[in-house]
Design a protein that fits this description.
- The protein is an all-alpha fold.
- The protein has a domain of about 80 residues.
- Helices cover about 80% and strands about 0% of the residues.
- The chain contains 4 helices and no strands.
- Helix 2 packs antiparallel against helix 3.
């Protein structure tokens, strides 16, 4: 009986050790996977944050536009005084649709302007790296500035004309 209880306790102890070693092994596997995924996502984190900020900005803008549409519709309904109620309703619906289309167009144009400004901002560092001179090269001019004429020099055809 003592031997049976010792063997049971020994089996339980071995099982506990194997479970803890397995848990440690799985934990290390998950940590490795996490670090791998994080290293893949890391370079794009700034882009994700920029997209999130842009989304919030657009949602806020949308809310402001919808509120402005309702406000203008109420003001216009108060000002407008059609005698025929059906004409008034049709006219208001038409104006609301036109107003909504114009607001959407303004939003699209703002988005394209923002997008172009972001692209322009991301392209500026590339231009700066291209215009840096190469060490050891005397005549290396990466930009076309050497091709531009200064005010004191005239094109060849103008020199011959004088």
């Amino acid at each position: 009986m003592i031997r049976a209880s010792l063997s049971k306790s020994w089996i339980l102890e071995v099982a506990a050790r194997s479970l803890t070693s397995f848990a440690v092994f799985r934990e290390s596997q998950w940590k490795e996977r996490y670090l791998e995924v994080y290293s893949l996502i890391g370079p794009f984190k700034e882009q994700l944050e920029a997209y999130r900020a842009e989304c919030q900005h657009l949602e806020q803008e949308k809310g402001e536009v919808v509120g402005e549409i309702h406000k203008l519709a109420e003001q216009y309904a108060d000002i407008l005084g059609h005698q025929n109620h059906k004409q008034k309703i049709r006219h208001l619906v038409k104006l609301k649709d036109q107003n909504f289309e114009l607001k959407e167009e303004v939003q699209k144009l703002k988005r394209t302007v923002d997008k172009l400004q972001k692209e322009r901002a991301t392209n500026k560092p590339l231009k700066a790296s291209v215009t840096t001179p190469v060490k050891g090269k005397e005549n290396h001019t990466p930009s076309c500035k050497s091709l531009q004429l200064s005010p004191s020099t005239k094109p060849f055809s103008q020199k011959n004309a004088m």
